[in-house]
Design brief:
This protein has 174 residues and is mostly helical. It has one domain: Four Helix Bundle (Hemerythrin (Met), subunit A) (Up-down Bundle), CATH 1.20.120.1630. The protein has helices at residues 3-21, 23-34, 45-70, 97-112, 116-155. The radius of gyration is 17 Å and the shape is globular.
Length: 174
Amino acid sequence: MRRSTMSAIALFLKNALFTVVVPGVVAVYLPLTMAAEGLVDQWTPGRTVALVLLIAGAALYLWCLWEFAAYGRGTPAPFDAPRQLVARGPYRWVRNPMYLGVELVIVGWSALFPSLSLALYALLVALAFHGFVVLYEEPTLRRKFGAGYRKYCEQVGRWLPARKQGTGIGDQNG
């Protein structure tokens, strides 16, 4: 087998393992464990919203994962982060779409299994994500990518889309 094929397979396996272990536990296993009350048999508009949130969150996470692997040549794991600054795909509009995808999944579970514990859990995870981003991830990325990352931060919002027109960020990357 060619070396490039082997490294692509290894990268896929690392990303799959990380996804199962970290977002899988945070966004699927723990919320479903907390949803002990079970699902109500009646279909409601809230359940439709919940399914949209679950699907949108999972799709956003997977798109980000693809960009990390295909372009950045890395994983979401801090010890195996992308080798290049990923400013394409959903990263053109917001700096942390992967966290937003995971949070959407948790909020989707909270809407599907209405419970105070799940709503509080969603809030706690959002606060933990924010703390991790501000205290660890952003300083690390500033050190690793320098002026390119600082410019990216000036032009793309952390949590909400705030991309300034004509920035060129991500445009060269697709």
